[in-house]
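Supplementary Methods, section 5.1.

A reviewer requested that the exact input to the structure prediction be made available. We therefore reproduce it here, unchanged from the version used in the analyses.
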Amino acid sequence: MTWLYPQFLWALFLLAIPIIIHLFNFRRYKKILFTNLKFLKQVSSETKSGSQLRRYLILSARLLALTFLIFAFAQPILIKNKVSESGSFISIIIDNSFSMNQTGAEGLMFEAAKNRARIIVEQSNKLDRIQFITSNQDPALLHFVNKEDALEALDKISPQSHSFPLSDLLKLQNRLLNQENGDKRSYVISDFQKSKNYVTERHLDNSIVCQFIKVNGPIVDNLSIDTCWLSSPVIQKNETILLNIQISNYSDNDYEDLNLELLINGQPKGISNFNISSFDKSTTTIQFTLENSGLHTCELKLGGDLIPTDDQLFFNFYIKEQHQIVCISELINPFVDAIFQDNPGFEIQHNTFGNINYSNFKISSLIVINEPKEMMSGLLSELDQYLKNGGNVVIFPHVSEPYGGLKNMLSTYGVNIGEKAIETPLKMKQLDELHPIIKDIFEKKNKQPDYPITQKKYPLQIQQGITIASLEDGSIFLQDIPVKKGHLFVFSVPLNATYSNLQNHALFVPLMIKMVLLNQLKSSLYHQIGQMEPISTGLPYQSDKDLVLVNPKEQIVPGILNKDNELYLTDLYELTQAGHYQLNNKNSDSIRAYLSFNYDRSESDTRSIESNEMETFCKDNNIEYIDQTVESFNSNFKNIKKGQQLWKWCITFVLLFLLIEILLIRFFKPHAKLSA
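The structure derived from this sequence is encoded token-by-token as follows.
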């Protein structure tokens, strides 16, 4: 507690005056003349103890009344947290995510949050240094500035599409505050949505004075398109394509016969009707066909509601006119040839080991090495370069050659292969169902699946990669060896009936097709705005400069990263608009790639953390929780920051003690005794 006018406290010495007056008056005697002593029996005398108590109570009441009157003039102020004379470091987390774009009782929630932040800044001292941490962690606001610059920066903050969880913001705030020496204060102004504001004790720093300030908003019924994916990686023109879409219902209502529309290249291409229960998810499908190959930009549209940012989903995909497969084999393998020869969208080229057209490697989606007698150095060099650039190679060993004809090649990649095949009838036992070439092959998983059976196999010992399929004894049947961006697939059996029934098994065709489409499987239909990880373009790195991402509403210059000779984009935090973007060269009209971006769906659930839950958490962690209107917050914050003025209470106590004095004088009369 402090005093606004401490000089008035000198008046406390005046309290000696009533003490002196009381003592002087209590020792005066009044002489009474009696004509006859018999009248003494009729005189009432006060008891000594009663008269002294009365005198002291009256004296105390007067002294206290005068004391609190002096206190009232000195104006005491109760300050909860002492303010540093050298100024404080104030960090304010202000929620500028899309959830704050709703209209509450005070108007737009984001403006209500800024009003509270403005009150904090305006009530700060001249020596205080202030910073803002926004939900998107705008780096321009992370520096501590003076009061005037802070108010100017606050006016420039606007809602943003991307937001980090509150736990990440608190970690950043604690780290920045702990870099400073002095008094530290932190504030969090948010609607405290359940979906993004999970905080535990480990995200807090008890050495920093903290306040959680809630901005109340409406609970909005909301439907959201969460994601979409293609049922099959095989996308071909004039063939049926099945698109799966997941929708979430963040409301207390059940909905029926809702419409979801698909637009491709700006034209309506399909529609789906679906039902969805309260606070549930629903998956629906749309079937469509496309007559043309090439790039297709797509958009899913849901009936609009109060949160339109999650009612659209942008994505794109590319239909390749022809997938080139190069098969290198002394004789045409009928099983490989049957898969691709008459299959639309695939074109197979046959090469012998003595006559290989290496120029076709660059445009091929898969190279099949079938029963080589010996791997020549020139072929090994070309295959290695092809793999490092992201190509895919599958190898089948020779039926009768030592080491299956693969010793030279496989030793380069740390693979040991047995000299002779081992005759051991075994059944394939296990598949890695998470691997891209296995995932989604089976519509239903049988308890006793019908897997291929081997009669003979080459023993393989491989220290790296992923075992896609293994046999009953745990040995390798099919191994995926990553080589830079590419994949080397090695089978332990040739395509020969004396070794296994793989070539006649139903698993063989989808395995081969998905190896062709593996690079297409790895490409994303869309990306999320605010994504911090580098984004693959699928393009080779060629010392690209002056690249720009462009859509009709904005244009940004991304960062460029060379990752295994592939072009990646970084520094996309400036991206704010969902939609389709072209990756162009600044100095030319050539389009390098198309990328689709969507808003983060983490705020689609508008429910906030319950007030009682927030109060309990804050109480347990020594945090002050404030859930008030801006007017109440303004008044109470002045008391918290500048101190609570107590002069009115002093006047109240003055009146109280004067009343006590009157009551003592009026009603407190000691008992009298009659003396003879």
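The first helix runs from residue 16 to 26. These observations are discussed further in the main text.
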